[in-house]
Amino acid sequence: MGNNVNYETLMGEIKKLRQQADMLRSGEVVDEIKAQIAKFGLTPQDLFDEETLSEYKGEKVVHSRKKPDVKFKDPETGATWTGRGKTPKWMQGILEKGGNKDDFAV
Q1: pTM for the whole thing?
Q2: I need a surface site. Which of 21, 29, 67, 88 has the fewest CB within 10 A?
Q3: Domain boundaries in the chain?
Q4: Could you count the other beta carbons within 10 Å of the beta carbon of residue 73?
Q5: Cα dihedral sign for 83, 86, 90, 93?
């Protein structure tokens, strides 16, 4: 290279070459992985768990949790409450009348 090339120009060229090398390397890796998947007949389900697959599909991931147990039940209407969250109207009515929520415990 001639004397007309400065440090910044060389560093810019090095950066471009590194990016090109990284692209080639990652492309080669992807090609190798694809070849191995084809060779062994692997499916996405073999490679990823259901949560990961759902995320790739853009689906909302719903974690399965046990529903909380019912702790209170209105014997007249059959309405129930777990004791979590906002107190339901039927229980509010009982409490406003001086009732005890423990009387409706399941």
Answers
A1: 0.39
A2: 67
A3: 7-57, 72-104
A4: 15
A5: positive
CA torsion, points 40, 41, 44, 45, in degrees to nearest 10?
-90
Beta bridge partners of 106: none
The answer to whether 85 and 101 are in contact (CB under 8 A) is no
**What spatial distance separates the first Cα and last Cα of the chain, rounded to whole Å?**
87
Q: What is the pLDDT of residues 31-88, one digit of tens each?
A: 888 888 889 898 888 888 887 877 777 766 566 677 888 999 988 888 899 988 899 9
| pLDDT tens sequence across 91-106 | 988 889 888 888 888 8
